[in-house]
Structure formats: C-alpha cells, structure tokens
C-alpha cells in the first residue's frame, strides 16, 4: 500500500505527523516530508488515521496492503 | 441497530455517516441538515474563500456520493425541530423520523449584535451563504472594514481585508484578545501581528451603537462616544451552540449538549462537533469538568466516534483528544494544540515580543498541556504527541532543546551551502 499526497491540497497542517510521526513530518517551511511512501503492515492503522485526519483531504492510500 | 439518524450535515455529520459505512454498517442512514447545501468545508470560508480571485467549490462530496457509495438518505433545507428520546423520534418539518441510534451534530450559530438584523453591510461568517455575501461586500467598492471581535474568525477576516487593500479596524471588548483561547501573554503577542500588518486594533472597547442610514451601516459608536465610519461591519463575537430544538427533550443543555466521556447524552444518543460538551479525560486532572470545542479536528473525530457508538453502544469507549486548531493571519499561520490552562507559559523558540515567529508551551500539573506556534509549522505537532502521552514538563523542555539544536544545525548547513555556491 502506498501513500499518495495531493501536493496542491496539502498546506502542512501537520495532523498526519502527530498521528504517524515515522511516516510524515512537516518541515520548517511548512512543506510535508514523506519519510516513506510504502506503508508497512504495522504502520497501517496509524497511517489510516492520519489520512482520515487531514483537514484538506490531501492524503489517500493506493494499492493492496502487502504490495 | 437498523436506522442511524444524524442531525447536522456539516463536517461532524458527514464523518459520522462515512465512518459507519466504512465499517460495513448496512442499516438505514439518514442525514438531516438545516441548510440547503451539501456538507461543505467551513474553515476556508473566513480565509481563502473570501480572499481568492476565483472561489473554490467548498463541498466535500458530490450529491451522487450520498445516494450511491454511502447509501445515505439526505434531508436538507429544513432543520430538525424536536427530539423525543422515549419514542426515539426526530421531527423535521412535518416529518417524524424514527431512529435506533442518533448523532446530534447541529453545530453552532454565529452570535449577532442586537439591533443589526437586516441591516445592509453587516455580516457574520458562519455559513456558506454568509461567506458568499461577505465576499461580494468586500469587493463592491468597499474601502473601510470594521470587525467586532478579535477572535480567530474576526482576525482572519481582518487579514483578508488587508490583503484586499482595505482600511481595517478591529474592536475588541476584552483588554487582551484571545485571552481565553491562548492566555494573556500570548493573546498580546498575537495582537502584534495585526498591528504589524496595518490593522488598527482597539481593545477594551464597548460597541454602544451601530449607526445606520437608509438601512445601511455607516459607523460604529463606541462607549466613549468615538465614531468609526465603516462600509462593512463584520461581527465575529463567537458562536452559540444550536440546541434550541432540544429544549424540553430531557437532554442536559448547558452551553452545548452535555454528554458523558463516551459522548453519550442519553441512551442511543451521541453528540459530536461544536454542539458537544463532554469530559475530555486527558485534561480533567488539570481542568476539571467538561469542554466544548469549535475545531475542525474534533468535529471530524467526534463525528466518526459518535456514530460508531450510536450503531454499537456496547463498543463505546471514552473519547479523549488533544485539541488542535489553526488560523491563517496575513501571510502566516497560527497553530495551537492542547489547552491554554496552566501556571506557566514558556517561549521555547523565536520571540513573542514582536508577534513571531515563535513557539510557546504551556505547563499545568507538572506536565505539558499546550503549545502555540506562530509561523513555525514544524513545531506544534511534535508537542501534540507529548501532550497526548501525558509527558512531563521536563520531557517537553528536552524536546525544545533538541529542536533548537536541529534548527541551529540546519541553519549552519544552509550557511555553508550558501558560502560554497557564492
């Protein structure tokens, strides 16, 4: 499973970082750093939470979990 | 559970119906909304929706999504008018809708200034229709904008006004704006942002009268007799939870619908969003009692949670959260996590004397309970995790020191690179 960021929508609000800090981080200039695109099984739950929590709906998931 | 009814078709209501469908709930779902509009995104309405040349479509989902994927019956355009918890029915216009589980997410109404009803040039910013009207007003040859209330909505509208080249004045009743939201010292720090961007701010002033001529606002007269001439007057003096329809329902109403820690207000009845008042167990040790939040994040979160509890009350568990809100002022962003209670505020980065950029953290009961950042978008979420994990004040100071070193190292590398390319 892969994380897809809609860069036009992302404004660096940071909810994703507070829920899945190993995957998402907001940089000093407010831009989003994606530490990994592929989501491992043990990250799945928190990444799903992060995707749902995005105030600008900039995050989505693509593909099967074991891909 | 066969029929989930959600009253309130904004963010919390939308998230309610989406959450149960995602979980595979196959009963009937009805979403009731007072406005004609499909659920739409509210935060931009006081920000880019007013400022942008072309206004984006604020609707979250297309109508087909409700009829199709979500299989939700939409009842839009008529507010719910009564609740009978014994018969388990909601009245909507002349219809009576029966429920097995209910989510109340009716939000809040903008407070208005008495005597300004129907006056041209006077606006609130709460609904899409409000924003459409204000957007037009700010462009129609307007040169002077006056904002009553230096809260977040008022401050955002003032920012947009300046961006559009208007003369902007903010009138605030309190001596320190936003003192309740961010504390006294930080409230003063945020006020600097306005002054730095050419917005005039009068604090500790009372609006005595809104002066009009031919049905149109002309000026605002203050308690000391000063008259401030204006073309447009925006009233941003907070919101009042939409609970009128619940009078006599037996639910406990006290600045919101009072619920328990699982968001339950009565058997089968759960609350979410701006209307919900509940004990947030994460903070009851330092701020006893209940809280009510008017934030995007809690509305989204509580909507899903309340609906899951409503369709399966046996699964209900306490809901606790670290509040988060953001506000876009001028060219920057104000972010706050946690609560502003406590005995100490420490600025851990930058300088608050000039209104930022800076980051400050809040201490209560020996732990970190809040963090505020102005134009430092990388900071608050790191503290949000500490707050949620009930970490100590020393842990927070340690993180602050780590961040200081990381920023210094980054600055050193940037300087080196610049030196190398020069």
UniProtKB/TrEMBL annotation, chain A:
Cofactor(s) of this protein: [3Fe-4S] cluster
Protein name (record): Ferredoxin
Keywords annotated in UniProt: 3Fe-4S, Electron transport, Iron, Iron-sulfur, Metal-binding, Transport
Domain 4Fe-4S ferredoxin-type: 1-29
InterPro entries registered for this protein in UniProt: 3Fe4S_ferredoxin (IPR001080), 4Fe4S_Fe-S-bd (IPR017896), Fe-S_cluster_ET (IPR051269)
Purpose of the protein: Ferredoxins are iron-sulfur proteins that transfer electrons in a wide variety of metabolic reactions.
Spans through the membrane: none
Species this protein is from: Actinomycetospora cinnamomea
GO molecular function: 3 iron, 4 sulfur cluster binding; electron transfer activity; iron ion binding
Automatic annotation (TrEMBL), chain B:
SUPFAM superfamilies assigned to the protein according to its UniProt record, in alphabetical order: FAD/NAD(P)-binding domain (SSF51905), FAD/NAD-linked reductases, dimerisation (C-terminal) domain (SSF55424)
MF annotations from Gene Ontology: oxidoreductase activity, acting on NAD(P)H
Transmembrane segments: none
Occurrences of domain FAD/NAD(P)-binding (ranges): 3-303
Keyword Cell cycle: no
Pfam hit, one: Reductase_C
Organism lineage string: Bacteria, Bacillati, Actinomycetota, Actinomycetes, Pseudonocardiales
Keyword Oxidoreductase tagged: yes
Protein name: NAD/ferredoxin-dependent reductase-like protein
InterPro entries: FAD-oxidoreductase/Apoptosis, FAD/NAD-bd_sf, FAD/NAD-binding_dom, FAD/NAD-linked_Rdtase_dimer_sf, Reductase_C
Coiled-coil intervals: none
Entry keywords, A to Z: FAD, Flavoprotein, Oxidoreductase
One cellular component term from this protein's GO annotations in UniProt: cytoplasm
Organism, as annotated: Actinomycetospora cinnamomea
Cofactor(s) the record lists: FAD
UniProt domain Reductase C-terminal: residue ranges: 324-396
